[in-house]
Design goal:
The protein is built from 17 helices and 21 strands. With 574 residues, the chain is an alpha+beta fold. The longest helix has 28 residues, at 2-29. It comes from Mesorhizobium hawassense.
Length: 574
């Protein structure tokens, strides 16, 4: 209970801090502070940094005709400027004001696309350029917009007359000064790091004194050292954060080189760690494991980033700082969550999925977590984040970590994860011809009085995955039969997999064009139940799950096995 009380106290400290931060932000947006954001207008853009995010000329055409497909939501403007519309979808608004969609116009390469880009930037400056408020001026959105305007300045300024050229640079300079003022007070996490990246881009891309570049470089280095873990993961434990940040950090490294400036060692080191980390989270089909806010993967995005990875050999198997383990042999990949929740400050997307795992064989996923519907209705997020949406054990249908659903909290912080496992010891069990680990967590100890321990071993050239789930009281002793010891071990099956049962209570998991796996359990008769897979490319899909249900006071340990019986000709993992 002391741990829960401590997490709650930490949460309310964050609420107070965020309230004060927003108050200061409103003050800084007012007339008293606004003069600080005025100043000298740069004469020109020295260099347009590269953009690694995928571009689609078809989207530029849609935008030309007044259709804006942003953040999974399509808005038709009916001939009006999109910046005049009041669209209730907050994700769409952030995407609109973030201007990353300029890359689609740049990919088109036509004068018409350049003119449309220039018209939209003109609209934004006229409607929002001098009114520092709302979504448009949230520091995280401002950072994305600064980066996008710099990266795509060539298309925006193509054929521009002098008045627009000056207005563009004047607005850009104002946004940079505002972001420099706000960056130090932004909440911990990805947004604050991106703000430091944006300011480094600005110091390299615009005429600026050497002191400005030194300051931007120093602040960037400090933030990288704080947020990028020694194994290359991000402090939020989000696989997607690694991908998104690399999409900004790799062009930044190139921009330092293009300007003949030495990049900070922290930037070089972070990239060198993050690229192998991205490979660590990657299944053989190119998708990322569905942990902690990960939804559907756009495979080409991963491939674009991975082209910059010069690492030779197989991905790492052990990410102790991020809290994940990987087993890989014979074309089979197992990725497991073996870490405690991230700090409350950066846990808005965190899941209660401790000791959950995913299994892919060749290019087909068999055992998965439900993932999230990235652009779906927010009311489904709590379901996707719950322990029951992961391939692990739940006790009494309760998640192993708690989420804050207070309206007062959500208005300021979203829905952070509070409580949950505090200690998750993990040990590798690798031997010749076998990879494995054993880990346990105490997420249920305070409420139900016992621990969950899971052991996974992959052997026989990837043909056999054996698992053991054990439930034990802290300090030893038998688990009491008190009506609070009901355990459900779930194995969520990918919706593309058929599940068939034979007369011996064995379940066959068969891909349409791939491997076949057989699931067996020694102590409990498995059952199949309905499930939902949130991370489908086209949205949530119906799926199924294999379930082992029992009382821990009667069966304290279960042994199960997944055996590959029909092997397709897949190459080794890489």
């Amino acid at each position: 209970m002391a741990l829960v009380a401590g997490s709650t106290a930490r949460l309310w400290t964050l609420v107070a801090r965020e309230f004060w931060r927003k108050t200061r932000r409103r003050l800084r947006a007012g007339p008293i502070y606004r003069w600080r954001y005025s100043g000298r207008t740069p004469e020109r853009v020295l260099i347009a940094p590269p953009d690694l995010r995928l571009a689609d000329p078809q989207i530029a055409l849609e935008i030309y005709y007044g259709r804006y497909p942003l953040s999974g939501h399509l808005v038709e403007t009916g001939g009006r400027s999109p910046f005049q519309l009041e669209v209730p979808n907050r994700g769409w608004q952030k995407s609109l004001h973030g201007f990353r969609w300029l890359r689609h116009m740049r990919a088109t390469g036509t004068e018409l696309a350049a003119a449309n880009a220039r018209a939209l930037v003109t609209d934004w400056i006229a409607m929002h350029g001098n009114q520092i408020s709302g979504v448009a001026w949230e520091p995280g959105t401002t950072a994305k917009r600064v980066i996008a305007w710099l990266q795509h300045s060539s298309v925006v300024l193509q054929g521009a007359e002098f008045p627009f050229y000056r207005a563009f640079l004047k607005s850009l300079a104002m946004q940079i000064r505002y972001l420099r003022s706000m960056a130090r007070e932004m909440p911990d996490g990805e947004g604050r790091l991106r703000a430091r990246i944006a300011l480094a881009f600005a110091a390299l891309s615009l005429p600026a004194p050497a002191s400005a570049l030194r300051s931007a470089t120093r602040n960037l280095a400090e933030e990288l050292e704080h947020q990028i873990l020694p194994d290359g993961g991000h402090i939020s434990r989000k696989p997607m954060a690694v991908l998104e940040l690399l999409a900004d950090l790799l062009p930044l490294r190139q921009t330092y080189a293009n300007q003949a400036e030495a990049p900070p060692s922290a930037l070089i080191g972070a990239i060198d760690r993050m690229l192998p980390a991205l490979r660590f989270f990657r299944h053989q089909d190119g998708s990322l494991a569905r942990f902690n806010g990960m939804g559907a993967t756009i495979h080409d995005r991963i491939a674009t980033i991975m082209r910059h990875d010069d690492t030779v050999g197989a991905p790492l198997l052990h990410a102790p700082h991020s809290g994940y383990e990987r087993l890989s042999m014979g074309g089979v990949t197992v990725i497991a969550d073996t870490g405690p929740p991230p700090p409350v400050d950066v846990s808005i997307a965190a899941h209660a999925g401790c000791l959950a795992f995913e299994l892919s064989s060749g290019r087909q996923h068999f055992i998965v977590n439900a993932g999230i519907d990235t652009y779906g209705a927010p009311e489904f997020r709590p379901l996707a984040r719950a322990t029951a949406a992961h391939s692990t054990a739940t006790v009494n249908d309760t998640s192993s970590a708690r989420f804050s659903h207070s309206l007062r909290v959500s208005d300021l912080l979203g829905s952070p994860l509070i409580g949950g496992p505090q200690h998750v010891p993990c040990k590798r069990l690798d031997q010749k011809g076998m990879q494995g680990f054993v880990a346990r967590h105490d997420g249920y100890a305070a409420q139900f009085g016992f621990l969950h321990e899971r052991e996974l071993k992959l052997a026989s050239n990837g043909n056999v995955l054996t698992g053991r789930d054990r439930f034990l009281r802290q300090g030893g002793g038998a688990i009491r039969n008190n009506g609070r010891d009901f355990v459900t071990v779930r194995f969520h099956v990918h919706p593309d997999i058929s599940v068939l049962q034979d007369d011996h209570d064995r379940f066959t998991l068969a891909a349409a064009h791939g491997d076949t796996w057989v699931f067996t359990c020694a102590e409990v008769v498995p059952e199949v139940e309905e499930s939902i897979y949130f991370a489908g490319l086209s949205g949530p899909r119906r799926s199924r799950q294999i379930v082992l249900a029992f009382k821990a006071s009667e069966i304290a340990e279960v042994h199960w096995q997944l055996t590959r019986t029909n092997v397709a000709g897949y190459p080794e993992n890489n």
